[in-house]
Write a structure and sequence with these properties.
heterodimer, A: mainly alpha, 14 helices, globular, B: mainly alpha, ABC transporter involved in vitamin B12 uptake, BtuC
């Protein structure tokens, strides 16, 4: 048992939490989006736009806080394109999400070129905080934000009137309308909040996690997150363990490289995709039997037309 | 709005409206980046179709896009949304290269069919994997194909950094150059290769089989009503495997053709987003196999013209990605169901 709390183990858990954080934020946002009956694959592109905007603003202003806010704003704007296409124009949600993904990838690569190779300092260490310093020193500001948001979103979704309204819209827009709710408004909000959190995720990645910008920095984290929403059963509380599947595998493969395991780093780097996909596969059987908590309004999208 | 909605009822005018809006968007994009919009647009069109060389490069880019579009349109016959073109392309290149490395120096008439078969088998496996997950346990095929894309790219990285790396490359991660027998024939002193011909034949065959054969009718029936289709004795899981597998095989051919003709060896960066461009083409064509052919050429032109944008206006190649995203958004907006609300 002593091994479980050894310094190596604690630093591994901290590393897993740090690399889970961007994914966790996207899982939380996409969970809310899907809870109102909309799927958005564009989160990957929104993360990229959030990451480059956050990085550029941090570099220009010297303030990582301003960077995170700017990243959230930019990604929310991009998510509005998905809302407009799918909710106003009635386009296929999968296709519309992919259009946003392409746009985000193109825009971030195009406007990100001058920032390749630049360095920023980010938030700095929290090791100086009294009492909690030794623990917090291993984490970072965005990890704390994500860990706080998880229960907040859970409590909001399951216990408040507005949370109930959002869930009602995702189950049936007809009965939500009968309850006096404006389903279209809530679906717009669901997409935009998902956009906001994906932007925070992207900015957390470039400003707080890597402190640099490279093209396609998110490398599929947003898409993994969309898969993990299903693993987490559209439940914000389960978003953390689901996101740890990604972060844990990433931390594990980085750790294995330093151990000098005789396996190619390129093979090990498939783990953050292979493990979430495998868990999605393994848990799908149960999802099929009991519905697994999929919002009714999503079923038409998921089963294909 | 009502007048506009009435106009976009007709599919031909929808196409014209999309083309007009896309042209305006291109002009706007160039203007925003401080360029002479009309002059640069002219360079873009000339860069794609202006002379024999430009046209040949457009066809070179159109080839993998055409293959990947077919890999999207065939599964769409069953209502499946596969975005796995890139992964199938990479995995096909991997297995095709394995055949080449195993056989060594053979004459082209023996090598080429085996190499193409190896690539098709690999692509088919990668596509059928997502198909099996969908058919057996209802794992959403869009998500699984997207994740499998990343895995296939990393597997090629692994092969060319590791076991297949040619040490004489001085650290450059790639296999040794393919033997002469493993290079697909090209036409008229250009880089246009046999792959284009194969892709066009595949599109025509798919059109014939999908619209004229019992199998194609079965797919249509399964798509419109799974229960009735199954009742008529059509096997749904088998057909999901088939459409994903055949689609994957075609994307796999694109992969080995890129490695063989364009790179001359296996190395990373095989696909310039051909999978997603193919997805866009299939969507623009309304998943119609024959319409995919000219649209793939137009999309190839858009990608090829990115080179001239870079040359004349120093615009990075990602401008082609932005323009594709804008085009997709326009087509989705014009083709959406909103007009049903506007016109009674």
């Amino acid at each position: 048992m002593s091994d479980l709390f050894s310094p190596e183990m604690l630093s591994f858990i901290a590393a897993a939490l740090r690399s889970s954080t961007p994914v966790l934020l996207v899982v939380l946002g996409e969970t809310l989006t899907q809870r109102v009956g909309v799927i958005n694959l564009g989160v990957e592109g929104q993360m990229l736009v959030g990451a480059i905007t956050g990085f550029a603003v941090t570099l220009a202003s010297g303030s990582p806080t301003l960077g995170l806010l700017a990243g959230m704003f930019a990604a929310t704007l991009l998510s509005a394109v998905h809302a407009l296409l799918s909710l106003y124009f009635g386009a296929n949600q999968i296709a519309s999400g992919l259009a946003v993904l392409i746009l985000g990838a193109g825009l971030s690569a195009f406007y990100g070129i001058p920032y390749v190779g630049e360095k920023i300092s980010g938030f700095g260490s929290m090791a100086g905080v009294p009492l909690l310093g030794p623990l917090l020193g291993q984490l970072s500001v965005s990890v704390l934000i994500a860990l706080l948001l998880t229960p907040l979103i859970g409590v909001w979704l399951y216990t408040t009137r507005t949370g109930l309204a959002w869930r009602a819209v995702g189950e049936s827009t007809e009965s939500a309308r009968a309850m006096g709710i404006n389903p279209l408004l809530i679906q717009w909000l669901g997409v935009l909040v998902g956009g906001l959190l994906s932007g925070l995720a992207g900015a957390a990645l470039s400003v707080d996690y890597t402190s640099n910008w490279i093209e396609n920095i998110s490398s599929g984290r947003g898409l993994v997150a969309v898969g993990l929403v299903i693993v987490a059963r559209w439940n914000p509380y389960l978003a953390l363990p689901a996101a740890l599947l990604y972060g844990g595998s990433e931390a594990l493969y980085l750790r294995m490289q330093t151990w000098g395991v005789g396996v190619s780093p390129y093979l090990l780097s498939t783990l953050p995709y292979v493990i979430p996909l495998s868990v999605l596969v393994v848990t799908s059987g149960r999802l099929r039997q009991r519905g697994g908590g999929m919002p009714e309004g999503l079923k038409a999208v998921f089963k294909g037309s | 709005m009502k007048g506009l909605a009435a106009i976009v009822q007709h599919s031909s005018s929808r196409g014209a409206l999309s083309a007009l809006l896309f042209t305006l968007a291109c002009l706007g994009f160039f203007w925003l980046n401080g360029h002479q919009p009309v002059a640069l647009f002219r360079e873009m069109v000339l860069g794609a179709f202006g002379d024999g060389y430009a046209l040949s490069e457009t066809l070179v880019k159109a080839t993998p896009i055409l293959f990947c579009a077919l890999a999207v349109a065939l599964p769409a016959r069953l209502g499946l949304i596969s975005v796995g073109g890139d992964g199938q392309l990479y995995f096909g290149a991997l297995t095709g290269t394995a055949v080449i490395l195993a056989l060594g120096d053979l004459s082209a008439p023996v090598m080429l069919p085996l190499m193409l078969l190896g690539a098709a088998a690999g692509g088919a496996l990668w596509g059928a994997l997502a198909g099996a997950l969908r058919a057996r346990i209802e794992v959403n095929e869009t998500i699984s194909t997207l994740l499998l894309n990343y895995i296939a790219v990393l597997l090629v990285d692994y092969a060319v950094h590791g076991p297949w790396k040619d040490q004489s490359n001085l650290g450059w991660p790639a296999t040794s150059p393919f033997p002469a027998g493993a290079i697909l024939p090209t036409f008229f002193d250009t880089r246009v290769h046999l792959g284009l011909l194969l892709a066009v034949i595949a599109a025509v065959l798919l059109y014939i089989f999908a619209s004229r054969s019992r199998w194609g009718l079965g797919l249509t029936l399964l798509r419109s009503n799974q229960r009735v289709g199954r009742g008529a004795g059509i096997n749904y899981p088998l057909n999901v495997l088939l459409v994903m597998g055949i689609g994957g095989a075609l994307a796999g051919l694109a992969g080995i053709a890129e490695a063989s003709v364009i790179q001359g060896r296996l190395q990373g960066g095989l696909s310039a987003g051909y999978g997603i461009s193919g997805f866009l083409v299939a969507w623009l064509a309304g998943q119609k196999f024959l319409l995919i052919i000219p649209l793939a050429v137009l999309m190839g032109g858009l990608q090829a013209s990115a080179d001239s944008l870079q040359l004349f206006a120093q615009m990075p190649s990602s401008s082609a990605v932005i323009l594709q995203g804008i085009l997709f958004a326009i087509v989705l907006a014009v083709g959406g169901r909103w007009r049903e609300r506007m016109v009674p």
